[in-house]
Amino acid sequence: MTAETSQTLDRGLRVLKLLSDTDHGLTVTELSNKLGVNRTVVYRLLATLEQHALVRRDLGGRARVGLGVLRLGRQVHPLVREAALPALRSLAEDIGATAHLTLVDGTEALAVAVVEPTWTDYHVAYRTGFRHPLDRGAAGKAILAARQGALAVDGFTLTHGELEAGASGAAAPLVGITGLEGSVGVVMLADSVPERVGPRVVDAAREVADALR
């Protein structure tokens, strides 16, 4: 810690990070051991975080991330969208297909940014806010493959007709961004995805990841 930083704030943020890394919550004793501070300090941190709904404690006394974190999370989407738009515009214009940035939202894939090409006669309509299961469509499957360490060597995922009849998709996951799972992809009206599209999508995903770091 330096003179310019707050030890209490640092500890509070560390509590949130520890809780976000577990599905079953942590006890005061567990947090005390992980933080290297006494239980009294942990109680005070939890009480403060509870007042802001960032932490909740269940009947067994285990602390978990609170719903207040979701309210903060909603404000992240506009920032992510703004950072991703240049790469998505370039991708949509280059491929001539609708490009999108998709993030994980619970058990679903959520399109947070969509860019349609300007020069094509027709393209797939794909709206911001569109949700679908993670195990359907290229966007969600690319995320799951990256999560499971099962991504293909070429780095992208292809699908056909899983979300819309006659439409094919290609997507590549965002890599190297702590705490954010997502993918960049395109969707087009075609029986199959042209060969050059997959590598181009991988490049776009890399551009978006670099913009978010």
TrEMBL record:
Residues 68-213 form the IclR-ED domain. Residues 6-67 form the HTH iclR-type domain. PROSITE patterns: HTH_ICLR, ICLR_ED. The keyword tRNA processing does not apply. SMART domains: HTH_ICLR. InterPro entries: ArsR-like_HTH, GAF-like_dom_sf, HTH_MetabolicPath_Reg, Tscrpt_reg_IclR_C, Tscrpt_reg_IclR_N, WH-like_DNA-bd_sf, WH_DNA-bd_sf. Keywords: DNA-binding, Transcription, Transcription regulation. This is Transcriptional regulator. The keyword Secreted does not apply. CDD domains: HTH_ARSR (cd00090).
